[in-house]
Amino acid sequence: MPANKDPIFTGTPDIQWNNTALAAANTAMDGTGTVTSVFTADATNGGFVAKLIARALGTNVATVARIFLNNGSANTTAANNILIGEMTLPATTASASSALPAFEYPLNFALPPGYKINVTIGTAVAAGLVFSVIGGKY
Questions:
Q1: What is the mean pLDDT of residues 59-72?
Q2: What Å distances lie between residue 97 and 25, 38, 90, 129, CA to CA?
Q3: Mean pLDDT over all residues of the chain?
Q4: How confident is the model at residue 1 (pLDDT cuts 50, 70, 90)?
């Protein structure tokens, strides 16, 4: 018989984002180098991540966002990171009359205590990108 047959739900909404726009390129495919942490699970009970949202802050060239799961340890050690997804981000042009689109990447999984979602971009951009994660705390 399974140990837990009941579904688990988050107790508190948890929305996190990078405080500084990401603009520097990182060609490392192992989660090392220039990364930004966009979500850290609760240190005691873990958390749930529903989706990642990427937004350009103005005029940028096309790039790719790479999404890494980190085990809560230093991302400078490649063994602490795993690439879980990539998202193509097109070139954008700032405009006073047209909205810049948001791009979403579905995650929909639970994180153990202290685990992180980190993001890198493959090409340097001018205006920068911000990333947010919609999730919850257990």
A1: 98
A2: 29, 29, 19, 20
A3: 95
A4: low
- What is the token pair recorded at 90? 């097109």
CA dist 107 and 125 (Å) reads 25
Residue 49's alpha-carbon distances to 25, 94, 104, 112, in angstroms, are: 25, 30, 13, 11
Q: Residues 61, 125: contact at Cβ < 8 Å?
A: yes
Q: Is position 4 within any domain?
A: no
DSSP 65: E
- Note the pLDDT tens digit of each residue in 72-91: 999 999 999 999 999 999 99
- d(Cα 19, Cα 5) in Å, to the nearest integer? 38
Q: Number of structural domains, the chain?
A: 1
Q: Which residue(s) pair with 134 in the sheet?
A: 15, 51
Containing domain of residue 31, as a range? 19-94+102-137
Instruction: Check residues 19 and 40 and name the one with the higher pLDDT.
Output: 40
CATH number of domain containing 48:
2.60.120
**Quick check: is 6 in a domain?**
no
This model's pTM is above 0.85: yes
List CB contacts of 43: < 8 A, sequence separation 6 or more: 113, 114
